[in-house]
Write a sequence for this structure.
């Protein structure tokens, strides 16, 4: 277990370590966790963090009180809108998908539904370009996308995007069962 500090630095800030990360360091950290998951899990449990694994990614979770849970649900609602927007842009948007901000902006000219969904993304932001910059920054900050090519502005969706998709799927299943 040589990388406890590096892993902690990423995951303790709410980030993800994805299998298909562009960063060689993160891919290396993913492999280290994969090779010795139980030891890392036990180590972080000892300092109050729960190391969890998903479909090609790792993250920290924790038991939360009701106030924290309410805040988390509100943040999740924002991510539902963001994912809905991205799936409207391209229904194959997910792990491994590559895109440019310019691709999304070009599609605004011909897709009325996309324009409608963009309105509710960031109500305080006026232009679509600024909304896309903010959306991409949020995706990047969470570790859901990484800049693949700085020259042409291509981003790649990481395996961590499965996390938010799976959360949304859980909510959809619960909603369907109650209806």
């Amino acid at each position: 277990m040589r990388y406890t500090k590096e892993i902690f630095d990423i995951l303790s800030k709410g980030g993800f370590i994805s299998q298909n990360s562009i960063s060689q360091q993160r891919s290396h950290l993913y492999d280290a966790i994969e090779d010795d998951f139980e030891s890392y899990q036990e180590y972080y449990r000892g300092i109050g963090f729960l190391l969890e694994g998903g479909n090609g990614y790792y993250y920290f979770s924790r038991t939360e009180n009701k106030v924290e849970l309410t805040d988390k649900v509100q943040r999740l609602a924002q991510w539902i809108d963001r994912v809905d927007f991205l799936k409207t842009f391209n229904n194959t948007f997910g792990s491994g998908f590559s895109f440019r901000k310019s691709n999304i902006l070009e599609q605004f000219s011909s897709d009325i539904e996309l324009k409608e969904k963009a309105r509710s993304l960031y109500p305080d932001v006026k232009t679509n370009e600024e909304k896309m910059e903010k959306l991409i920054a949020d995706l990047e900050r969470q570790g859901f996308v990484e800049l693949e090519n700085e020259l042409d502005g291509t981003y790649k969706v990481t395996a961590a995007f499965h996390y938010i998709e799976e959360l949304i799927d859980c909510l959809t299943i619960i909603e369907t069962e109650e209806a």
Notes: The two ends are 47 Å apart (CA to CA).
